[in-house]
Amino acid sequence: MTDQRRAVYDALMGQRDHPTAVEVFMRVKTKMPTISLATVYNCLETLTGCGLVKAVNHDREPSRYCPNLTEHAHLFCDGCGGVMDIPLRARRRPQDIWELPDDVCILQHEVSFRGLCPKCATADAQKAPRSRSK
Amino acid sequence: MTDQRRAVYDALMGQRDHPTAVEVFMRVKTKMPTISLATVYNCLETLTGCGLVKAVNHDREPSRYCPNLTEHAHLFCDGCGGVMDIPLRARRRPQDIWELPDDVCILQHEVSFRGLCPKCATADAQKAPRSRSK
DNA sequence: CAGTTTATTTAGAATAATTCTTGATAAGCT
DNA sequence: AGCTTATCAAGAATTATTCTAAATAAACTG
Question: Nearest nucleotide by C1' from A36 CA?
């Protein structure tokens, strides 16, 4: 664990909002002005490689990074652009809803929802009310 | 629906193996040698826009395209590199296993598994047997 | 501790998938 | 036929990411 890796990890833990590599770079740069973007990519790669951080992808947008190691899905909000963790319910497994063949071997699964987060969904309901008087 | 769009759509329906844009391009080119890659991208975009085709992304690999309109997940096989459709079980919904807040608005969800497809998983079990005599 | 190997960092070049631009072509209307 | 609009083709441009090479730092070895 080098200084740079620690700084990148701390940036992720300090503000757990699923930043992109460039956002991590900008945050780390305030503490360690000499760090390069390539190093941030290297560190993120190393950290994901040893399982401390997860890379989160949605469509072909830039990868985002997440230090939440529990099993969870992500909600990508069309309103605010934010990403929200969605926990797995207790004692539930993906195969409860997905018809996986018996003899497959699952090493990883990634789930993303797109829509509106609670905040944006309620704000949106205000703007376009359906059954409500002023 | 232009000739090009039809040709791209036919290429997807003819061999439903989740090809990339370049693979679609190569297939269509045999029937319509003048088509350009940009047009394939345009057509795929148009077809996904009107809901006839789904774009499938996994990590930051090139997008793949899928004409299966039923709700399903994808298994990306580390062994053969193939992609397999995994159907949703009857009367099951993502919120059965994911703890979604009440007031979110879900517009789309994408699920991908990574691992070994049945064929590769059994082949792999042969090569590295655990409890089996020769 | 000097010398040597090994890993890491940096800056910038290279890559690759996708998108954009521009001019050409075709299709639909009047 | 003439005008408008959408689509296509070719290649340039964009962008996130990876690679390269040189510099630096860390870790051993004697």
Answer: C10
Is the CB atom of residue B38 positioned under 7 angstroms from any atom of strand C?
A: yes
What are the b/e assignments for B28-62, b being 16+ CB within 10 Å? bbeeeeebeeebbbebbebbeeeeebbbbbbeeee
* A47, A8 Cβ separation under 8 angstroms: yes
Dump pLDDT digits (tens) for A42-90: 999 999 999 999 999 999 999 999 999 999 999 999 999 999 999 999 9
Question: Chain B within 8 Å of A116 (Cβ-Cβ)?
Answer: yes
**Nucleotide in closest CA–C1' contact with B39:** D8
What token pair was written down for A100? 């996986």
> In the 64-83 stretch of chain B, whose C-beta falls under 7 Å of nucleic acid strand D?
none
Residue B33: which residues within 8 A CB-CB, separation 6 or more?
Answer: none
Mean pLDDT of the region B1-19: 96
Q: How far away is chain B from the Cα of A31, in angstroms, using its nearest Cα?
A: 29
pLDDT tens, position by position, B27-67: 999 999 999 999 999 999 999 999 999 999 999 999 999 99
Q: Closest residue of A to B78, CA-based?
A: A107
